[in-house]
Specification:
CATH architecture: 2-Layer Sandwich
Helix content: 40-55%
Largest sheet: 3 strands, antiparallel
Number of domains: 1
Shape: globular
Radius of gyration: 15 Å
Number of strands: 3
Order of helices and strands: HEEHHEHHH
CATH topology: rbstp2171
Strand content: 5-15%
Number of helices: 6
CATH superfamily: Phage tail assembly chaperone gp13-like
Strand order of the largest sheet: 1-2-3
CATH class: Alpha Beta
Distance between the termini: 37 Å
């Protein structure tokens, strides 16, 4: 049995990355598993606001892509303030990265519906 210390847990590189070719952007990008904080932010962004009956799905691809695109060391490439600009990029490119981000993070229709319900 290997009992981990706090330092060992915090030092673990537990956000695996995958390289994805995005021809529309002219190269490869890294897509990573989200941190717990990023996952909570993404799920929170799906919840209806101001008494709306439906969740917030507008620009959902760009929101997930912004949370998962990273550099070679796993640092996010896009800030939250840049999500709208990212959403203006090619739908084909966003879909390609979004699909990998969904797979790496275990996000599908069922998970999105559960998050919207709160």
């Amino acid at each position: 049995m290997n009992i981990l210390t706090k330092d060992a847990i915090l030092a673990a590189d537990d956000l695996p990355r995958e390289t994805v070719l995005v021809p529309e952007w002219g190269g490869d990008v890294y897509v990573r598993t989200m941190s717990g904080t990023d996952r909570d932010a993404f799920e929170s962004s799906l919840i209806a606001r101001d008494g709306a009956k439906e969740g917030r799905m507008e620009n959902v691809r760009a929101r997930l892509v912004a949370l998962t695109l990273c550099d070679a060391t796993g640092n996010r490439l896009f800030e939250d303030a840049e999500i709208t600009a990212l959403g203006r990029k090619s739908a084909l490119a966003l879909d390609r990265v979004f699909a990998v981000a969904q797979r790496l993070n275990g996000i599908g229709i069922e998970q999105a519906e559960t998050a919207k319900k709160g």
